[in-house]
Amino acid sequence: MVKKARNRAKGEVVALVGASLLLTAGLVAACFVAPTEKTMGGVQRIMYLHVAVAWFALMAFAGTAAGGATYLVRRNLIWDAWAQAAAELGWVCCSLMLLTGSLWARKAWGTWWTWDPRLTAAFVLWGIYSGYLIVRSSVEEPHQRARISAVLAIVGVVDIPLVILATRWFRGIHPAAPQMEPSMRAVLLLCVAGLSAFLSLLVWQRQRQLDHERLVGLLRARVQDRVF
Length: 228
Prior knowledge:
The chain is mainly α.
């Protein structure tokens, strides 16, 4: 048992170090290796972080909805923990997506914000999952909290296709997938892979923490029942 735990801990460390190195390589490449875009200059480098956090936010929110739906079917709170962990990291990335998008828009469009269809859909998504996290902090009973949160997550995930396809379905100023040089595309993929790997490990660790907290709470409640 002890040996198995040690091997697992070593594997976790190796995975975390590997993901950290991959993420670092992506960020370094974005800052110093990728060619400078001719029109916007160095500001365009924000794109690498912007796309990476946007991708992970959408995947994390999809994972939140999947975890919530699985909880509704199985009534096992471990799936609710997965949903919460994914939502927390997804919300952080969605916030960074809006922030980096505003910085990029200031240079590209001359304004910090515009109610472009894709930006509007992204803001709505951020608002829905902000509400999701508020609900989680407001409802104490675990299963009631899990049920309400699951419904919110499933409703919110409907907005993800709008974020992805808004530039195809509606007219706006947000560009569709731009044409990039092969070196730019390679750096972008490296950033997306590195950030996704690193944050996926954080989601996993957060889920374990939440599940351990739940189990400790159950044990504490049983001890109190026996003592009092």
